[in-house]
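Encoded backbone
================
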Amino acid sequence: MLADLGADVVKVERPGVGDDTRHWGPPFLKDAQGRDTDQASYFTACNRNKRSITIDMAQAEGQKLIRQMAVQSDILVENFKVGGLQQYGLDYASLKVLNPRLIYCSVTGFGQDGPYAERAGYDLMIQAMTGMMSITGRSDDVPGGGPQRVGVALTDIFAGVYACSAILAALEVRHRTGLGQHIDMALLDVGMAILGNQAAGFLNTSKVPQRQGNSHPSLAPYQDFETMDGAMLLAIGNDGQFTRFCEVAAHPEWGADPRFASNTLRVKHRELLVALMQAVTSTRSTAQWIALLEDKAVPCGPINDIGQAFNDAQVKARGLVVNQPRSPAVAAKTAVASIATVASPLRLTATPPVLHRPPPALGEHTDEILAELGLDDAAISALRLSGVL
């Protein structure tokens, strides 16, 4: 996000290995002949616009290079275990002395304090611990029932979004004070925060939310319905939308039924209402229902797979696929000429997101970045020979 907004983001990686997600495959990027390479597509999901440098921070010379970078940087983001960088003199307390303006964001599983602080944290673990899995999936009494993880690393992604917000807030504070600060970002905290209305319901009623598939605990009808050729999603959020649906469905009496007169009553009589609606929705195709309802301001849509989603007319119109060519040298070395990513959803009229470069190859910009630090070719060669790079 920061790189899309114009920041020069330098990713520090382990020599010869790099970010773990470079190897999280399949699926892998494909060459011009459609054959798998050894480059996992997972890495491309969140590394657009960054530069990559390889440094062995276990070596004193590597630590020195990172300190030099920190002195010249506005922001440092790290996701080591609590205290993991202190042994290298790369913790916030050490770097703050060198650069008091530095904004230092630590992303950990459980935060900088508490009984779990030293534990490693992964998205799946956090989804399980926070209760996210307990409210995702079908209830135990139906086929396929049981807790489920969300289909993407939701906690990881939201942790990045929250971290970006905190960093931008810290930048704004620094405009006034001239000083940076430490940001303690924990996956656990984020996982609890994104429980949203489900957390609010429990905290104020002590009633533990339960899994209920695609239906909504506070709205009805707000779920999937079978159609003649598959299924559709209805997201009716108010009484007017419900009344208009009933008219289109040729059952205006539902809108006048005292059992369905308000959202609260529709939730109370959800089982009966859904059964009545299901008998009607199955008489037309998904496309027919969408055509009938979209100009009546009744939220309705298909349940797409990801391929269908990227082929959607609105997705195409918004330009949500970005293809970025690699440099000729990297393309020749990796056998992958370009990389596709999802466009930034941040649409700023005066300062729109920028596309500097595709996700980097491992260490692609090492020499370039070190030259910016003032190292000449001989010094860079010496560091490479010693295994620091």
Q: What stands out?
A: The longest strand covers residues 103-108. The chain is about 35% helix and 15% strand. Residues 304 and 312 are 9 Å apart (CA to CA).
